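Morning F.,

Quick status update on the modeling queue. The single chain you submitted on Monday has been processed. Sequence for confirmation:
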Amino acid sequence: MADLSVGQARRIALAAQGFADPVPGGPPTRRHFRRVLGRTRLLQMDSVNILARAHYLPAFSRLGAYDDTLLDTAAWRDTTRSPRLLAEYWAHEAALIPVDDWPLFGWRMDDYRGGRYRYTREVLARNRSLAADVRDVIVGRGASTPRSVEDELGIERTPGEKGSWWTRGEVKHVCEALFASGDLSATRNGNFVRHYDLAERIVGDQVNVSIPRAEAHRELVTRAAAAHGVGTVADLADYYRLKTADVKAVLPDLLDAGIVREVSIDGWGDRAYLHRDARIPRKVRRSTLLSPFDPLVFFRPRTQRLFDFHYRIEIYVPEHKRVHGYYVLPYLMDEQVAARVDLKADRSTGVLHVLSAHVEPGVDQGEVAERLAADLRATAAWRGLDDVVIHGRGELSGALSAVS
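Structure tokens below.
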């Protein structure tokens, strides 16, 4: 007999991620935002801004409408009254992590010392003097874009070359390599453009803290276990993109210390590990839209096991081959992922377009339509939009239109 049912594992996961916490009665504050960070441990970043950039959505899903400047201040505006809480690094892909966690990735910075990608490594290898020049410019100028560094160094781009992600010059690659190695960190402006700066100017004294690789792995797996509540080795490894071998190497220590205990979950082929602080609510009552990169769902195999919800992002799928849409958000309704909607914010007209709406098998369309309509209005208001327009694609669209 299994130690836990899937339903219990699901409630544990929802509680661990903050969906069983109370929603603030008034406007969310910095204290509420910090509570979310205590649950998620990181915020995965993404540049797509068709509704809101991905790192803004997890706090909305857990707190309701909040002021984006809570995140902006935590990550990018360092003041004496509001010291920086977050810094950007490669955690679960590009992510905002607590500044205090910066030293836990020192081993990864060492691994990336020559650059994260092959071409970047090649650029850095043949441009050691350029790397020193880039650093000197940033020392003198402060936070800088690659374009501003090029201008300072008198580097001219090839005529017609744009400064996009896909046509980066060598200065951009050098900045990326220095970022990956932890020599530089970065802040972002309102257009999501990275401004590279010396890591010590952004993360402070944490830049000088050294944590041995095995100790860092133990701590990261502990954080992943707390964030999941309960998870398999694959789940724990994915949270911070560790190797499964590294997770298996530290699990005996965590078991001996009582930080996790091994459990079986009905229907799961692999054993799972339950964090000592995990709790099983009797029920979870929460409905909200989720980012495609929300920690609750960003590891798709786990999403399938927990919610019986097959989810794939279709941004890079040719339009005529998309099943559900371009930027499709899962809809959490209590303890199930009940629907998915393809959304687009038209800021020029103040309209949130629901391009498609699909309901999951076995879900009552009337109930999900009623609750989803209210949550869509709340989402629109959070993004400063005045109206919600339902388009006809998807089997839920009719019911949604009827109650909107």
